[in-house]
Amino acid sequence: MGVFVGKYPYFNLLNGGVEFSMWLMKYWPDKENSYYKLKALFALGCYGFVCGVLLVIAILAYFATQVPDYRTLAEYKPKLITKVYDRHGEVLVEYAKQRRIYVPIDEMPDNIINAYLAAEDDQFYQHSGFDLIGIARAAINNILGRSKQGASTITQQVAKNFLLTNERTYTRKIKELILSYRIEKAFSKDKILELYLNEIYLGSGAYGVAAAALTYYNKELEELTHAEAAMLAGLPKAPSRYSPLSNPQVARYRRDVVLGRMAAEGFITEEERQQAVASDLGAERVYLMSGEAAPHFSEHVRRFVLDMYGEDALYTGGYHIATTLDKELQSYAEEAVYKNLRAYDRRHGYRGPIARIGILMNWQARIDAEAKNWTEFQNIGTPAIVLEVNDNAGFAKIGLPQNQEGLIELAALKWARAYEDENTLGPSIQKVSDVLNVNDVVMVKAMANTYDPAKGAKLEDGYYSLEQIPNVQGAFVALEAETGAILAMVGGLYDGTGFNRAVQAKRQVGSSLKPLVYALALEKGYTPASLILDAPVVLRNDELDRTWKPQNYSEKVYGESTLRRGLEKSRNLMTIRLARQLGIGNIIRYARKFGITAQMDRNLSTALGSSSITLMEMTGAYSVFTNGGRLIKPYAVNYIQDAVGNVVYRQHDACESCQISANESIYKPQPLPGLGEQIIPETVAFQMTELLQGIVRNGSAWRAKAVGQAVGAKTGTTNDFIDAWLMGISPNMALGSWVGFDLPQPMGQSETGSKAAAPIWVDFAKEALNRPNQSPLHFKVPNGITFVQIDADTGLLPNSKTKRKIFESFVHGTEPTSNKKSNKKVLQADGQDINWQGIY
Question: At what angle do helices 248-264 and 110-120 cross, to 10 degrees?
């Protein structure tokens, strides 16, 4: 008779057990003989025990075929954090689906290992994968209705976390026991512990002990104290419940329990336990996945790596990406952009509150909610509600998030004349109510420790300035001239869109393109002293029945002027004559050599900067002048290492020996000299550095004199003041700044490159080029250059009538040898209308 049937032989043995029991019942002794009864009971008990054992074996044998393959642990590839570093090894940003930093067991400090052994499995190095005594104890407590207990060893947790689900069933527990036994046979104890400590989830997005140490304490593992290690060791049981961030009191209790277990196991002394118990939790969320530093640059790098390796590799591959960014220079750039966009915005008045609240009841909750809508602009200010306006006392009382209050004085509102249009402001501010009304929601910024000259003292805490988010935008780029490394990049006031105006926005460049025209002229035989006629030009297109009469910005003409003077004063008429002589097709081809890929129309207005080009391309083009005529390609990533340290990408051979060490510091050797293709003669490049410096001394880039170092620059301003530029160089950098609206529109009268864009450039350069222990730099004079003193007006050698003398740079053999005008060629106008279509 078969009760158990199937393919498992153990079930057939049990079948026999059932038949034996039925036989025993049939022949049970009916006489009062205790000896026979005891003998029968003993036989039944023995057989029952054997059957029970066989049943357990049968169950285990069945489930042994249902468990996953434990051998996959040998090929375990954890989902790791990809880290992006600046050029000095500081972390900029991280990308990950699970925040995990894999640390080998032999690199983990003893106190973190001991804390987890004490908290989770003090018999780890003695058992064979599971603790039978612990299982029995937990089962009894559960049966008796006491608090439910687990008895999972570290090995069991590895089996569950890597190979099973979190379902709370007996079948899952049986599979867990089978896997634990197999894992113990296949792997060393240290390897099992390594897997556990790197995989375990510890709350707040942290996987593994190394990520948790950074998440809660911003420390490396070896820096953790006993108390901090114990706090982390208390998290696996219930990461949310024992979180020191959300439940500090419960977390402290759990930490102290773990410290007690560590002392009981002899891992720490009683004195050390007492000191640890007396210490504060000290945990705070200080470690963020997506850094706020350089958001546009970080996104630029993310897209670069995404294009090369794909999303899965970026977010799980554990790459170490060494970038070119200098965080100190980046901070200068961000401050310069915001400061000067704010200055522009204030020049054009106050546009009113960002919102109005109907009633003041429960204003605290409303302003807290409002603050969440403006988190992208927290560096600009925070929302506040106007609670009271007191014109007699000259202040407004404001309510701030988190139930705070403050004051705005009348003096802090003087700038806030009403915006009417880009050229017109409302009347001057006489009283607080000219600007603010009760229930207005406005942006404010603390003015603590700000000196008030009127009071002759520092303002106390609680005083605020009125702010508004600029609706104008700007961008800035700093390149290392020799290599093309992007040292700093600001793509605008960060608004969460990710739009990078430094590399994605194509804007009309205006006169900032003229240096390329003048460089071509030098290469074609002109000198800085060549004379060009500055006189009216009339260009006609018969097909379009249109006449173009370009003018200088001043609307004046100046007669014969040197090429230097034409560039210093950005003379449009001289540039048109020069472009006609050179050929617009040649100018476009020349621009292509400089790395400019934007569309350029084949007409003479292109020479005046009518083309729309990105700031990055323009900055790269200017780097040719300070890089000895060599073209470098701007880049953001020096090299990339995979999770085990292999270099999988390298921008230059200069970084052949670069690597990120275990402590995450970066060794960066000096770049190799002479990078880039020689696209113009070194002598011409140097002459352009001289001309650009002249624009700083005598032209529209005069603000750059405040830098106090050798710099050259050229402004650019487009029609109707829509775009403002300043492009320039130092001996070791190429720098570019742009200001304008995303939707092109006039910025206002006189918002030129000199007024709107130059202050950004200058503020950055003053900081970047005058850092402590930095020696003054000078543009290197190449072989083949001769300096000759000339008459600044005629371009000839000086004579008795000379009013102004300068030393000018010439390619050897092109310098003037006489002070007589007949020896100079002047590029004249022919006095006739020119058909400008098709002039190449």
Answer: 100
Same domain, 593 and 624: yes
Closest by alpha carbon to 694, among 533, 564, 595? 564
Give the pLDDT confidence of 531-570 residue by residue, as tens digits: 999 999 988 776 667 888 999 999 999 999 999 999 999 9
What is d(CA 373, CA 469) in angstroms, rounded to the nearest whole number? 13
* Active site annotation includes 511: yes
Q: Find out whether 571 and 553 touch, Cβ atoms under 8 Å.
A: no
Tell me whether residue 259 is in a domain.
yes
Dist. CA 276–CA 580, nearest whole Å: 81
Angle CA(373)–CA(377)–CA(381) in degrees, nearest 5? 100
Domain match, 453 and 501 both:
no
The tokens of 299 are what?
A: 């996104």
562 and 459 part of one domain: no
Q: Final residue of a domain: which of 731, 749, 768?
A: 768
Q: Is 665 a catalytic residue?
A: no
- To the nearest 10°, report the CA torsion of 776, 780, 786, 788: -20
146 and 46 share one domain:
no
**Strand residue runs (E) in 182-245:** 206-207
Residues of the chain with pLDDT under 70: 1-44, 47, 49, 51-73, 131-151, 163-173, 175, 178, 285-292, 360-361, 448-461, 496, 542-544, 653-674, 822-840
Residue at 196: amino acid letter: Y
**Exactly one of 120, 409, 568, 808 is catalytic; which is it?**
120
Same domain, 754 and 704: yes
Both ends of the chain: CA-CA distance in Å? 106
Q: Is residue 827 part of a domain?
A: no
> Where a domain ends, among 768, 801, 824?
768
Polymer length in residues for the chain: 840
Kindly give the interhelix angle for 270-278 and 248-264, rounded to the nearest 10 degrees: 170
The tens digit of pLDDT for each residue in 280-312 reads 988 876 544 555 679 999 999 999 999 999 999
- Given this model, what pLDDT does residue 334 score? 95
Q: Give the range of the structural domain holding residue 132, as residue numbers without chain letter.
A: 97-278
In a domain, 800, yes or no: no
Please identify which of the residues 152, 243, 298, 511 carries the catalytic annotation: 511
Domain count, the chain: 4
State how far the alpha carbon of 387 is from the alpha carbons of 134, 153, 417, 434, in Å: 63, 60, 21, 16
Residue 705 lies in a domain: yes
